[in-house]
Amino acid sequence: MDTILITGAEGFFASRFVQYYRDKYNIIALSHKDLDICDQEKTIEKIINIKPKYLIHSAAISDTGKCEKNPELSYDVNVKGTINIAKGCAVAGAKLIYLSSDQIYNGNVEAGPYKEDCVALPNTVYGRHKLEAENAICGIVEDPVILRLTWLFSLPERNVKINSNIIWNLVKAALKNEEITLPANEYRGITYVYDLISNFHKLINLPKGIYNTGSESNLSTYEVGKVILENMGIGHRIEELLIKDTERYKENNRDLRICNNKLKDQDIRFTNTEEAVDRCISDFSL
Question: Which terminus of the chain is more solvent-facing, meaning fewer CB atoms within 10 Å of its CB: N or C?
Answer without folding.
Answer: N
